[in-house]
Amino acid sequence: GEAEAKTYEKFACFCKDTTREKIDSIHKNEDAKIELSATIEELTSNRNDQDALVQEKQDEIVQHEKEQAAADAERAGTKKEYDTNAADLKAALEALSGAIKMLKASKTPSLAQVQSISETLRTAAFLADALGVGGAEASKAAALLQNAPENEVQMQDYDFHSDGIIETLEKLQDDFRLEKENVDKAEVESVQFHDEFTQTKTHEIKMANEVIAKTKKAREDTIAEIATTNQELSTVEASLLEDKEYTNQLSKMCNDKAKTWDQRSRVRADELATLTQAIGIIKSTVSEKTTAATIRFAQQGVSVRMAKSVALNNGAMEAIELAAEAADEAAPALVQIEAHRRGLRGFVRGPADARQAVVDLLSAQGKSMKSTLLMSLASKIAADPFAKVKVLIQELIERLLQEAANEANHKGWCDKAMSDAKQKRDYAAEEVRTLNEEMAELEARLDKLNEALAQLRKEIAELTDARATAEAERKQEKQQNAETVEEAEAGLEALSMCIQILDRFYKTVKKETVDLSLAQASPEDDAPDAGFDNGEAYQGAQAESGGILGMLDVMKSDFVRTIDETKAAEAQAEKDHLEFMTESGKSLATAEEAEAQRRGREKPILQPYIERMVQAHWQSVRYPAEPEQEAYFDWDEFVRFRETLSLNITEACNVVTPRWIIDHIGSVLEDVCTRQPIAWQDFDACGFVLTGVASRAPAGQDTVIPRLIDLLPQLPYHTEGLKAQLLRNAASRLILFTCGYLALNPDACKRILMFLAFQHLPAVSALPEGDHPDTKKYADTLACDAVKTLMTAARKIIISADGGAFWKEVVSAIITLIAEASFNVDSRATLVFSIGQLLCVLENWAELEQMLDLFVTKMEEPLAPLLAALPPEPLGPRATKKSEKAPQELKLYIAAASSVYNMPKHVERAYMIDDSAHHPVLAVVEKHFRVIERVCLHHTQYEDLMEQVCLAFAYILGFAREYSAKSPVFVQVMRLMAKCCEFHPQPFYMGLVRQMIGIFAASNNKELDAVLVDLAGLFAAPVARQLCAPSGTTLTPAIHTASYELLAEALRHWNIALLAIASTKWLAETLDATIEALPRLAEENQAVHERTINAMMRFLRNVLLWSDPETYEAETPELQQLQQSARTLLAEKPLRIVGALVRLIAAAAPNAPTTTEMVPHVAEVLRVLLAGPFEYEASTALPVALRSLPAPLGASLGEAELHRFVQQLKMEKRDVRRFTRIVIGVAEQFAVCLKRAQFGG
């Protein structure tokens, strides 16, 4: 009954929880359905708006094309008109120029000449009239030539008007020239206007096409989003319907189960009452065979909620780029028009002016005298002195007009180019912005998908657990039902036997009689009544037998009913279990399929974008070919940009496979290698992209990285400039990220290591700093990191190559580079430890010692000038710093001496030195100890150097712990550190001693224990003495803390504690000084000294623990001696310790006691006191110490409160948490008291 009640309680909880979950899921899905429906309506509206916008922009393009066609037609007409007018004007100017020249040159023109000139003038006049050029001069010339001369008399009349005609023609010629200039200027302006108009229309059409493209792309995205949202809506509706059906089934099942439980509870109560009655009667087989298990157990129904299915968004993006270039107009052709000249009919003889008379005279005299000089002079005088000037001016005007036209065309081209550049820039910026928006949208979608996947994974796990739980519970329930049926059948069999026996008995005894036939007469009358008559046979309790047998029949029927109901329940449970397993299996399959579909849909959505991103990243990470020549190139900013892109490439491996990226870079690399010489920035970009994939790609499973590795030694490395450093960086980075591959390929590893040691490192060290010193330092660091990483990853391959000759050659080359100081100090230190990583795997310790000795000796060479300048004796505390940091060579020397430390513990004995106490590293340190000692003692003022020395000795002695204790170096090193600490105390010296105690205290070597105890006293006792000195301490709180942490660590080990407590004086002095200094430090400045106070209390606790026999289990003589020695040491000190602890609580009260670690430490020490042998002294001293506190704290606790406080502490001394809470409560009460006193409360 109890098991069934618990099972039903679990079922009821399941019904309640699952119903609530399903109702919440239904509400959530209904909200999601409403939201998705609204989203679909909004997206549909957006799609309609986008369709309208596309149509609008298409109509605009048609209108722009019509306007452009009309402008082209108008421009063609203007061009045709210009060609005609320009040709006519040119012909007229040539004709007028010829006519004027003829009129001026001929004294007696022939009739043909006169007629030709007349025809020319008439044509020019008509043209001037047609063009509206010349005005009065054109009309005058036309009037003079109205009637053609037909006889000599008319020619005489023409002679009279010749001067006026020439003047008129010259003016007309000027007018024609002016008109020609105006026509040319108008043509230039027309061309410029047409070009600008064309550019404007082209730009508008291009912008409209861009809007159409973007809108179409947005429309496609909208359609895709509508489809995705519809899928999500379908999934939500399906999930909602499933949840509702599941909830209805769950409600019915839970109600039915509740009714069944009520009936079973009632019947079980009746059954228990019947069985209680039967217990008093049945004492035999029935009672033995019938147990509580015969009571039918209720079947627990198991169900889980169905998994939700969420659809994935599935979108597509296309990048459409439209580029439309307007065609330039062809240069206009010149039209040649043939001019026919005809002579004038008449010509006037005689000179036109005085100059002509002079010309005639000179010509006549020249002919008569046959003088070429006079003839030449006459020719020069006859010529117009301004003719050439006019021609030059005309040519200049024409050239200027042509240049103006060219400039207009060039300006138009420039404007167009500038406009295109701006458009491209704007398009690029817009594309970047669009890509960023899409990336943000995709990231949000990815987050949503990841959230859905996480939910699916959670539901799959829940379904799997539920199925496993159901299987286990079903198995257990089946076993219980079987046991119930078995017990009930056994009980039924026993009851049937019992009923049969009782029935036979009562039926038999009912026939019993007493035979008195032989009885003699007896004194019947005198006898008292016996309670029954003679001969009255006892026939059993026939009246009660019916009730007994009836009750047994009831019990029998109960057993039968139990068997029948249990079997029916088992059958129903089996059926329910099969239904649950079927439904949960379907839900599990649905969830797993949904997860697979989501993962399958996620990658196709993101993959094209990620592939484009990777391709774009290769372009983006490329350096300029000549970085120094880029005015706005910022190396630091570009490096940060590249690192961001590298992270993007690494994350891209979540969508596309690393192999795809590697293959893509491989195809790019092949293309790069076909162009000779190889562009360094392309190779750098290939290597950089691959480094982003290196952490996600398995080593040695592609051909691209091996190809890059093979190319490294063959690249055309530059020797100067920023590009030289950048290409070297690319090589270093590639090696750094491919060490996994190289560690699996010995041949490639050897080639690259030879390249590093003999080509790459020397070349990097020789690179000039230039204008970017940080890039040089970065190149050094990257190259040295590559060496260290490779030598660490492939050290076993390197050691075994070429029978051991290869690594010696490489190490010797690197040692030379370190000693030459061509790298910065950090890079040289990296190379030092790379050598150490290689040497530490040597199994031949003699060879290791030889090479390490050579290395340290080589590193001593740069120290010679420094050591020669040192004084004979160390200056000790008087030594001052010459710079902020110690000389680099000293630090590198210490690094070399400690470079080999993590050696494998197991080596072949055949390779080891015979002496079991001999360790190669310790031997090298011992050999060079004099130099190490001089370096340390003369430079204790440099904290960075001495901290490195302590760290180096901790590594050396710790990793060689099996040999250190037997080596003389151990004591020498510890004494050296003590001397250095005496000169310039620092906490790292105490830290080194504390580490040595922690390492060697467990060895149980008495000689070594004595050394450790001496070291603890040597370093810690002076610190404690200074804390109690009247003049105060000159040491820092960090040194105080380190000193007491050393003491706490030493007293944690029983052997060290026994030796220190039983045989030293300094420990007792230190204990007294500690008790005295504790409250004073807290009262001076708790914040500054809190760590020291906590360390001091840990030291006190460890001393107190050794005085308590419950601290340790085994009762050995040593531990008994330790207990007795600790009690002797602490005699009469508990009172002082309690007083100090109470003062600490009071000091912590004003400083938020709940936030500090000091009060819990105080509580721990006080608890150890009360739990140990000093309980009485501590409990007696505690109220006294509390009352002795200064006002108002001393009176803040009354006598009853003090008594209750002490009793609470004594009661809770075994419960650390409660004990600490009580002490903190007192500290808080003190804090409240102080605040009240402060504000007069």
Task: Please give a structural write-up.
By secondary structure, this protein is mainly alpha-helical. Helix content is 75%, strand content 0%. It contains 39 helices and no strands. Helix 1 (2-105) packs antiparallel against helix 2 and helix 33 (1066-1106) crosses helix 34. The chain is extended and about 185 Å long. Residues 145-158, 283-287, 292-352, 518-522, 529-542 and 906-914 have low confidence and may be disordered.
Keywords:
single chain; mainly alpha; 1241 residues
Task: State the gist of this model.
With 1241 residues, the chain is mainly alpha-helical. The chain has helices at residues 2-105, 111-131, 136-144, 152-279, 285-289, 354-369, 372-382, 387-509, 542-620, 635-652, 658-674, 680-693, 704-711, 722-737, 739-743, 746-766, 773-793, 795-800, 805-819, 825-839, 845-860, 864-868, 888-897, 920-927, 929-937, 943-959, 961-964, 968-983, 987-1000, 1006-1028, 1037-1050, 1054-1063, 1066-1106, 1117-1130, 1134-1148, 1158-1171, 1175-1187, 1199-1211, 1216-1238.
